[in-house]
Write a structure and sequence with these properties.
It is a single chain. By secondary structure, the chain is mainly alpha-helical. The chain has three helices and five strands; from the N terminus they run αβββααββ. It has a three-stranded antiparallel β-sheet.
Length: 171
């Protein structure tokens, strides 16, 4: 069974709460002006491009309010877009080669089980198929890199805020 010491809590409340209420009431009297002292801090973020390209568009101006994700600067994407197309074409060629070498490898494997072809022919087909697999992986990585570079050419606001400076001009 628990017993509570109510008289002690009531005494504590009288000692702490009454003076606190008195201070609050004193603070409510007097003038309507509220004076505060302290430091007002703001967060400044520098936005920069990971790739050096020509600025083609500045959709925001100094003083504009921006939300997170708002486009701040657009850089020239012509060269990077062409690189992406070239890498995608290389990937398509590598995938076609992989299809061809996989078919040849399966054919060689079947013929090897039937002892119609030599181990060397089977090994050559296996090596070519493995090289094609590696080539597809490399081409996929290059396409991913080019897509990342292309997305880096559109610089977006990382946070909600106000544009304080624009040290660059279009062109």
């Amino acid at each position: 069974e628990r017993r509570y010491a109510l008289p002690q809590k009531a005494a504590l409340c009288k000692k702490v709460l009454l003076p606190l209420i008195a201070i609050i009431m004193i603070g409510c009297g007097g003038s309507d002006d509220l004076e505060l002292s302290g430091i007002l801090e703001r967060k400044t973020l520098e936005v920069s491009a990971p790739i050096s390209e020509l600025i083609v568009k500045l959709p925001v101006k100094v003083g504009d309010h921006v939300e997170k994700g708002t486009v701040m600067v657009e850089l020239d994407s012509e060269v990077v877009a062409a690189e992406l197309k070239a890498h995608e074409a290389g990937l398509a060629a590598a995938q076609a080669l992989l299809t061809e070498t996989t078919s040849e490898f399966k054919r060689q494997a079947r013929m090897r089980r039937e002892r119609v072809v030599s181990a060397q022919s089977y090994d050559t087909a296996k090596r070519r198929r493995n090289e094609a697999v590696a080539m597809v992986a490399e081409k996929q990585a290059r396409v991913t890199q080019a897509k990342k570079r292309l997305s880096d050419l559109t610089i977006r606001s990382l946070v909600k805020g106000t544009v304080d400076q624009m040290p660059y001009e279009s062109g």
